[in-house]
Amino acid sequence: MSDAADIVFKVWGARGSIFSGGADKTEFGGDTTCFSLASGAGMTIIDAGSGLRAMGEALSRSAVGTAPEIDLLLTHLHFDHICGLPFFEPTFCDNTILRIWSAAFERDEDFRETLARVMSPPIFPGFRHWDSVRLCTALPGIAIPLAMGGMAVPFPLNHPDGAFGWRIDCGGKSVTIASDHESGNAGIDARIVEAARETDLLVCDATYTDEEIACRGGWGHSTWRQGVDMGEAAGARHMLMTHHDPRRADGEIERMENDARTRNGAVTFARTGWTRIL
Fold first, then answer.
1. Which 3 state secondary structure label does DSSP give 25?
2. DSSP 176
3. What average pLDDT score do residues 167-175 get?
4. pLDDT digits (tens, 9 = 90+) for 112-139
5. Is the residue at 140 inside a domain?
6. What is the pTM of this model?
7. Is there a domain that residue 199 lies in?
8. What is the DSSP secondary structure assignment for residue 273, as one 8-state letter?
């Protein structure tokens, strides 16, 4: 059981690009990116992939776990990172205040217009709950306050159409999200390492193998080796590898995890339901 002062991190979806189910994908799960960070004071969510649906159902079932104020930090608006939003049950509760943050826009109105386009006919039935959602823009390198306490700071990632990672600090603990990032841009890589300095948990992109990455330049993703390089340079206390390729079966991810742990024991490959008390 966690203490009221604890910060609890949980994985709700760790798959990349598209939901991927099947008997060979049960251990690591098939839902796309969604993480939560909770304290006794509230909750912060990172990304609204398909894993957000199950998270919303869990919140609705548990009065204790219900957070009337929730901050949702988006890394970017590719569909695998926002597809769960219309199915997030707390959005339909009158007492829930949901703030969605993005660092990809200069104005709140531009953010709203872009997100609304995705959730409009004929792509999606009209989303009728915008009045209960507050869309907010953040500036790279500038901290925003969180309802759960503490602050979050966005920083650039190397990804098609642009993406932003987040460093979240609360109660003396920290989590740094750097998924959907392609290593190799020296300037961006250095800024990520600095943003993740001495973080308790660094979430890294580990989509591809060494062989695959050779022919996927410009696709916006990395290997676990590149993630570990980044984590070690930052002095991260633990590294969580995520954004698993949708074709990747459990056995192959397990082998990747074993190889990574041979190099550094402070590495875990993200599984739906994985929880860490910071």
1. helix
2. E
3. 96
4. 899 888 888 888 887 777 777 899 999 9
5. yes
6. 0.95
7. yes
8. T
Amino acid at 264: N
Closest listed residue to residue 189, CA positions, set 208, 168, 204: 204
- Sign, Cα dihedral of 167, 83, 125, 111: positive
The HSE-up count of residue 253 (CA atoms within 13 Å, CB side) is: 27
Task: Note whether 100 and 134 are within 8 A (CB).
Answer: yes
Q: Is 238 helix (H, G, I), strand (E, B) or coil?
A: coil
- Please say whether the beta carbons of 244 and 32 come within 8 A: no
Rounded to the nearest 10 degrees, what angle do helices 224-234 and 250-263 cross at?
40
Token pair recorded at residue 82: 């926002």
Task: Indicate the angle between helix axes 224-234 and 186-195, nearest 10 degrees.
Answer: 50
For tokens 């948990």, name the residue.
201
Q: Is residue 2 part of a domain?
A: no
Residue 38: give its domain's CATH number. 3.60.15.10
Q: Which residues contact 159 (CB under 8 A, 6 or more apart)?
A: 76, 180, 181, 182, 220
Tokens of 189: 């890589």
Q: Which residue has the tokens 């990395």?
A: 222
* Percent of the chain predicted with pLDDT > 90: 81
CB 222 within 8 A of CB 210: no
Domain that holds residue 207: 8-277
Would you tell me how many other CB atoms lie within 10 Å of the CB of residue 270?
25
Dist. CA 195–CA 4, nearest whole Å: 27
Q: Which amino acid is at 278?
A: L
Indicate if the alpha-carbon torsion angle 211, 214, 217, 222 is positive or negative.
positive
Contact 176, 151 (CB under 8 A): no
| Tally of domains within the chain | 1
**Among 212, 195, 215, CA closest to 204:** 195
Give the residue from 176, 227, 205 showing the smallest Cα distance to 81.
205
Does residue 1 lie within any of the structural domains? no
